[in-house]
Amino acid sequence: MNLVEKLLAVDKEEFDKIEKKEIVSRQLSRLTGEEDAKIIIQAVDGDLFGSLSGSGLHNNGDVDYGKLFSTNAKIAAAGIIEPNLKDETLLKHIGVATPAEAAKKIFKGEVNKISDEISRLSGFVDEDETEKEVKN
Q: Long-range contacts: 46-55, Cβ < 8 Å, 24+?
C-alpha cells in the first residue's frame, strides 16, 4: 500500500481535528488561588501562525526583539481556549481591549512558555531540536 492509499484510508475527520492540550499555569494558580490551575490550548492554523509570527519581524525579515513579547502574546491568545480570552466581559473586567493584551495581563512572562507550547502543538517546533537544545 503506497502513501496515497494509506491517506485515503484515514477518516476524513482526522484531517480537521485540532490538537488540544492542558498545561499548568503558575500565574493563573496565583491569581485564582487554585493549586495547579490549568489552561487549555490548541494548535493554531498555519496561515494564522505565520501571520502572527510575522508581526514580530523587521521589514528585512530579522526578528524584532522589541516586538517578541507582543508576538508571543498574540500566539498565546490565538491558541488559548480556556479561559476564553475573547470574552468581552473578561476583557472589560481586566481593563484591556484585545485578547493579546489579556494574555499579557493574566499570564505575564508565562506568555512566552504558553506560546512555545502552542508552537509545538501546531507542529512548528521540531521536538528533536528542542531535546538537543535542552541537553546542551
A: 46/122, 46/124, 48/78, 49/75, 49/78, 49/119, 49/122, 49/124, 52/78
Output Rg (C-alpha) for the chain, integer angstroms. Answer: 17
Per-residue pLDDT tens digits for 71-122: 999 999 999 999 999 999 999 999 999 999 999 999 999 999 999 999 999 9
Alpha helices by DSSP H, listed for 1-136, are: 3-9, 26-32, 46-54, 68-79, 88-94, 99-107, 110-121, 127-135
Q: Would you say 24 and 36 are in contact if contact means Cβ atoms under 8 Å apart? A: yes
Contact present, 85 and 102 (Cβ < 8 Å): yes
Answer yes or no: are the C-beta atoms of 108 and 28 closer than 8 Å. no
